[in-house]
Amino acid sequence: MMPVQSLNEIETTDTLHADLLIVGGGACGLTLARAMSRPGRRIILLESGGATEDAAHETLNAVEMPGWSDEEAATRDSYHKTLTRHWSGDHQQYGVRCRGLGGSTQAWAGKSAPLDPIDYEARNWVPLSGWPMDSAELAPFIERASDLLNLGPRVYDERLWELLRRDPPTLSPENEALRTMFWQFARSRRQMTDIMRFGADFQADLPEGVQVVTQATVTSLDSTADGTCCTGLIARSLAGRHIKVEAPVCVLAAGAIENARLLLLSRENTPNGLGNDHDTVGRYLMDHPTAVVARAAPDHLSRMAAQFGLFGLRGNGQSHAYMYGLALTDHMQRKKQWLNGALFVTAERAADDPFSALRRLLRGQSKAWTSDVGSVLRSPVRLARGAGARVLERGYLPDTLSRGIADLAVRFMPNTLAGDLRSGHLPVKLSGVRFEATTEQPPDPANRVTLSDARDPFGSPIPHVAWSGGEAARSNLLKLAHTLCASFDQAGLPPLISEPWVQEGKPATAPIFDLGHSLGTTRMSDDPKLGVVDRDCAVHTVAGLYAIGGSVFPTSGHANPTLMMVALTLRLADHLEGRMTSARR
């Protein structure tokens, strides 16, 4: 096993050689490295950041995207700023980018679900829809990916109620339009109260023959003079060191924004960028446009939080947390020619949350000292729960005991534990329950990543993003909102309070935001004129070069994409293994 090493610690100036070169140390890059590890095979994985996030490498995450309204910018800020230590909406004007081993799994919530079978289909009401494979072909890889993510039973619909040994809600909004939808959360194997963090798990069990080089930002890809074959790359550190790496196979696994940017930056032999013969690199950028559509009435917060909360299920030797929500039925999508979409509940933190108050007091930032002290003194039980979570987290108890306690918490108090995890392992005080809708976004060539005139610390152009939720996606959010409220009324559930833009029927005014699910900039297509990679994730016009991750999605569906990204990575690993085996014969 090779230790993880910073580029600044590599003494040689000679060109490094590998059998397989991977750019990016996120979920896809680390999964591919482990899957491809074999005795005698040399794999080099380059990660731009360090072992974890840091402020210096956050400077490389700048994204330029004008156009957010003040309300949308504020919504993005409140939604994303708690995910990472360094994210700023002014700096990352689109998306949530993370440098450091583990990539975006340093910031994600662990929320997981597969695409629906309809998402793979060519639908005449969704332009450019259709994947080169169907759900059956990807099913075995989704199963393997679920194991890697430490997920429980692969049940995401109403059948889960039976496994939970619970009766479905007596009053339920499910009908012709809405169906039961469950998400589950990837749990760390190492830290029982945390979600899956790929970087920490990878470092705890380094695979054979994989050299991980951190603080190594790829600034350009090398190719033959005609640009038809990738030969390697150049990587640099913020401290001024650089290396050249050559390999017969190079895989870009740096995220949808960076994968496209790297291809566009590589212009020495191809003026429009490597693999960009048809001007498709960076196009068809998608996300999951999301908006608050309604809120529970103050008198019904507890009831709604309980009904649309989290549920614990024992399986595979441990307990797993599932979140209940709603999704559009295939029938409604076909009948009304709607995009796919889903609805879920988010609890809101109270202004007098004791942990926020305590943090302000300890940091000397309190502007209402008496009020903050009162909030702390009124919440001894909640503070004790937070202290207990810290004991588990920091390893003060034997591992066996910690695992047992965490499993019991997931099984019998999933809402409590999940809330603790989402707020940094601290049980917060809640003031509201809001219903959020998220929608599929049709691929649109106008939504794209290009290169800005602004430069990063290496002198390279930063990514410029043109992205809009679009009329179709906004309209779908309004349809989801109306369907949800009508379904509550029909089921006899407490009426919801629609957001003003829903009441007025004006989706153009909805304060939507990106979920940080950047997809589609090197989309998969059998036709080189409509995509960047083929069904095996090979760049159409550049031999030896592949891309993997959310950037290859032809369409977005509504599901959080990490499970599908890992599944596609495992499929790519099988393809590369077959290719390398054939090359040795």
Your description of this structure?
Mean pLDDT is 88; it is low at 381-402 and 416-428. Helices cover 31% and strands 19% of the residues. Strands 5, 6, 12, 13, 14, 15, 16 and 19 form an 8-stranded antiparallel beta sheet that branches. It is an alpha/beta fold and 585 residues long. The protein has 17 helices and 20 strands. This is Fructose dehydrogenase large subunit. InterPro entries: FAD-dep_OxRdtase, FAD/NAD-bd_sf, GMC_OxRtase_C, P2Ox-like. Pfam families: DAO, GMC_oxred_C. It is an enzyme of class 1 (oxidoreductase).
Low-confidence stretches: 381-402, 416-428
Q: How does the major sheet shape up?
A: 8 strands, antiparallel
Determine and state the CATH class of the domain at 1-151 and 198-288 and 441-469 and 517-585. Alpha Beta
User: How many helical elements?
Assistant: 17
Mean pLDDT: 88
Number of strands: 20
> What would the principal axes of the Cα set say about the shape?
globular
Q: What is the CATH fold-level name of the domain at 1-151 and 198-288 and 441-469 and 517-585?
A: FAD/NAD(P)-binding domain
How does the helix and strand content classify structurally? alpha/beta
The percentage of residues in β strands lies in 15-25%
Helix content: 25-40%
Based on the coordinates given, report the CATH architecture of the domain at 1-151 and 198-288 and 441-469 and 517-585: 3-Layer(bba) Sandwich
Task: Tell me the Rg in angstroms.
Answer: 24 Å
| CATH superfamily label of the domain at 1-151 and 198-288 and 441-469 and 517-585 | FAD/NAD(P)-binding domain
Roughly how many Å apart are the termini? 27 Å
Family: Belongs to the GMC oxidoreductase family.
Keywords: FAD, Flavoprotein, Oxidoreductase
GO molecular function, one term: oxidoreductase activity, acting on CH-OH group of donors
Cofactor: FAD
